[in-house]
Design brief:
Length: 89
Amino acid sequence: MAVDFSNAVKTDEGVQVNGVVMNQIVEQCEGCERIKEFDGAKYCGTYPQPAAKWRLGTCNFSTHTKTAPGKGKAKVNPLKASKRAAKGR
């Protein structure tokens, strides 16, 4: 859900939209299509605290990053693997 900055208000805490204080984007957000500009500063149009989304890795809302393909082999059920081996597959 995108945030509409048409009713945004600048306060001492920052920019407030519908009662939610929006924080400015972080460096990793640069290049994302969800960035909105308000009063000369850039904000995420989807999430009010962009730094929190990047804390543990890649932001799941980012449009400019690619997800890495799965590392290693897929998990195999050992019971099914033993049955396949018994059949000779």
